[in-house]
Amino acid sequence: MTHRGDVRFGVLGPSGVHAASVTIAGPVAPGTAFDPDDIAGHYWRPHTQPRGQWQHEVVHGGAYDAIADLMEHWQNAFNARRTSFQGISPRLLVGPAEISEYYDNVAEGTEAHLEVLRTTPLHDEIAAGFADVTFTAPTGDTIPVRLSVVAQRVEGTWLIRQYHAADPVRDAE
């Protein structure tokens, strides 16, 4: 089915027709990572995407979606300077005063760009994942960070329950 979606998108897309496929990678059941209400959003999203950002394949994968959505939300909040989830400093920060001081020292215009590397469902309502984040200062200087995240679904909403920031693992050269 994915190949058919790719072909349809390639043929119809240039004509202004948005062809997309949605794959559900698990059993659909209310109150789980494959809740029908969450899945419905995948069917609606293609109708709201601007032409230049059309997706032709969407995969609802439970744990991956939970972590990816949370990390995207965090990235947008960091870039808008609206988050208390720090990621650049290796120093343990505790409490509102230390976190506020941290953000006061992050150069205005610093942006986070992330890539979710791996996710694992730990339970119907708990997922873990890893992401690489590159913080880019207005000067062009970059700081790479590896994040690990544990998320829990509470009353239909995925929340970050624990995270850890560390220097990314480098492949041997």
Question: What's the helix and strand layout?
Answer:
Elements (H helix, E strand, L loop, with lengths): L1 H11 L8 E4 L11 H13 L8 E4 L2 H17 L15 H11 L5 E13 L2 E11 L5 E13 L2 E10 L7
Parallel strand pairs: 1-2
Antiparallel strand pairs: 3-4, 4-5, 5-6
How would you sum up this structure in a few lines?
The chain has 173 residues and is α+β, with helices and mostly antiparallel strands. It has helices at residues 2-12, 36-48, 63-79, 95-105, and strands spanning 21-24, 57-60, 111-123, 126-136, 142-154, 157-166.
How would you describe this structure to a colleague?
The chain is globular. The termini are far apart. Strand 4 and strand 5 form a beta hairpin. By secondary structure, the protein is an alpha+beta fold. The N terminus is likely disordered. It has 4 helices and 6 strands, in the order αβαβααββββ. 30% of the residues lie in helices and 32% in strands. The strands form 2 sheets. It has a 4-stranded antiparallel β-sheet with strand order 3-4-5-6, covered by helices on one side.
Main β sheet profile: 4 strands, antiparallel
Q: In which range does the helix fraction lie?
A: 25-40%
How many helix segments? 4
Number of strands: 6
Characteristic terms for this protein:
single chain; 173 residues; alpha+beta; 4-stranded antiparallel sheet; two-stranded parallel sheet; 4 helices; 30% helix; globular; disordered N terminus
